[in-house]
Amino acid sequence: MTRVLLLGGTGDALRIARELRPGDVYSLAGLGKVPDDLPCAVRVGGFGGSEGMARYIEHEGIGLVIDATHPYAAQISANAAQASCSTRVPCWALRRPAWQPQAGDDWRVVNDWSELTDALAPFRRPLFTLGREPLAHLDEIPAHQFWFVRCLDSHPDTTRARILAARGPFTLEGERALFALQGFDVVVSKNSGGSATEAKLEVARDRHLPVVLLRRPQLPAVDREFERVADLLQALHLSD
């Protein structure tokens, strides 16, 4: 049987990991909770770039790499594609479709942190849902702003920011209550796709709030791409 290396850290990846076998490997960066109830092996930590991943693939006898990382984990995806090429081991990728704007949306797409802060200049109470990145900029908060940063990491609040440690999925009712309580006037997000964190967009639409979106990175070409976990699992089972 083909030994699988699954690169994960997302809810979609966890669904795939639950269908793997004892000889397969689920690899995590180690930033969140490490599952202990999977049928496959779990490794935590980096590989040392594409060359390190290639060495791991060869040493462990990996026959298939599955990239089910976050759509913004561009470097990991690039390393997987390069390691796959150098070892001639196939690489499949789960490419979650991006969210698409709907009637009533006010989306403002930016390319980087500099453009993002420029886009936020008119606002006072932004909700950041970018992960940990805003934590590195808490000393740069403009005098007229108070930030709310939602991420996985616990972090002390400051006089100018509140850190909301939380993990999705988030419900529509919960998001409505949070927005009403905190009075956000803009939402900052990655265009992650999927349903786990989409409720904030519906609430922003209902409240006529703008959404500043960080543009998705360009991901490398791989042997096969899938938009749905079910399709990838079917292909995986058929390939055994």
TrEMBL record:
InterPro entries: Precorrin-6x_reduct. The keyword Oxidoreductase applies. One of its GO terms (biological process) is cobalamin biosynthetic process. Keywords: Cobalamin biosynthesis, Oxidoreductase. Its EC number is 1.3.1.54. The keyword Methyltransferase does not apply. GO terms for molecular function: precorrin-6A reductase activity. Pathway: Cofactor biosynthesis; adenosylcobalamin biosynthesis. It holds the Pfam family CbiJ. This is Precorrin-6A reductase. It comes from Paraburkholderia rhynchosiae. The lineage of its organism: Bacteria, Pseudomonadati, Pseudomonadota, Betaproteobacteria, Burkholderiales.
